[in-house]
Amino acid sequence: MRHGGRLTTIDKAINAPAPTLGTLQREKSKDFAIGLTMGWLVYLNDILNLNKPMTEDQIELCAIEVNETYYTLKISDLTFLFKKIISGSYGEFYESLTIPKVLSFFREYFEERCQLAEQQSLRTHNDDKSHSEFNYSKNIKRVLTGSTRYK
Q: What is the mean pLDDT of each run of 10 residues along the chain (151 residues)?
């Protein structure tokens, strides 16, 4: 969490130079990635000081589900997501933490992230398209000479 202060938006989390859970599973091991996620969940359990925290088995099952479903998330995404959870951005816990609650946080974050990534991709595509030499309206040489291949 110490380096999480730099992650203030989903955009920064997406663009941070960090590996994904899938990359960790492939390069280290699946157990390593699950263990990392479990560490975050244990930290969440401890920091929130809940009356009914998740049990070890629940933490492990939740970590497995996160790694199987959200393997495209980067470590920077996890840092930002857990920062948001701790700050209360996803609502009240009512003194308990459950697998469905945690997975709903991941689902909501993942949807936000996908929408932002889609917008970024579309913006990049439109920028690239407008620089294309075949884009008549942006090609100064064509506009000045008035020449077109097909009339």
A: 69 90 96 96 91 94 97 94 90 85 94 88 67 54 54 46
Model's pTM, two decimal places?
A: 0.75
Rounded-to-integer distance, Cα 3 and Cα 119, Å: 27
Structure tokens at 123: 């913006």
DSSP the chain: -TTGGG--SHHHHHHSS--BHHHHHHHT-HHHHHHHHHHHHHHHHHHHT-SBPPPHHHHHHHHHHHHHH-TT-BHHHHHHHHHHHHHTTT---TTB--HHHHHHHHHHHHHHHHHHHHHHHHHHHHHHHHT-TT-GGG-HHHHHH---S--
Long-range CB contacts (< 8 A, 24+ apart) of 43-49? 43/1, 43/82, 44/82, 44/85, 44/86, 44/97, 44/102, 45/97, 47/86, 48/86, 48/93, 48/97
